[in-house]
Amino acid sequence: xxxxxxxxxxxxxxxxDQLASRYHDQVDLMLHLGDSEAKxxxxxxxxxxxxxxNMDFESxxxxxxxxxxxxxxxxxxxxHLYNVNRHLDDLLALAKIEGSQIVAYGHTHIMDYQEINxxxxxxxxxxxxxxxxxxxxxxAILELAGDQVKGVTFYNRDFEVIVEK
Length: 165
Known about the structure:
The protein has helices spanning 13-23, 89-98; strands spanning 2-6, 29-32, 49-50, 63-69, 72-77, 102-104, 111-116, 119-124, 138-145, 148-156, 161-164. By secondary structure, the protein is mainly beta.
C-alpha cells in the first residue's frame, strides 16, 4: 500500500492539482495534512482527504483515522494542536489514544521520519514553504508491506527523490 502525504501548500492550488494528476492511479490514498488554505468545497478534496490546519478557516476535521490493515491504523492531524514545534510527546499520546501505529503531521514545514516507541511518525515537510535544511518544497510517499511500514520516500516539487528511508 502506498500513501501520498502532502502539507502546508498555503494557497498553492497548482501543486495540489499536479500531485493529484500525477499520482491518483499510483497510490492508494492521498492525504493532505493541513494549511491548504483551500475552501471545503474545492474539487481537490474529491481526490484527497484533508485535516484542518491553523491557517484553514473552513469546517474540516482536525484528526482523521485510517484503518489500513487489520493491525495497522494511521492518524493524521496538522499538529498545531499538539505542540509539534516544541516536541512530539503530545502527538505520540494522540497516536496511542487513537490506537494508531502511524501518525502523520504537518505544521513545522520540516521533513521528518522517525520510529518512536513503536510508532512511526512522518512529516512530509511543506510543499510550498519549506523550512529546515532542504530549500525546496517536499511531499512524501509512505509505503506499507502488510501491517508494517516498509519505508518513506521524500520528493521535491519536481517529483525527484530527495531521500528514501
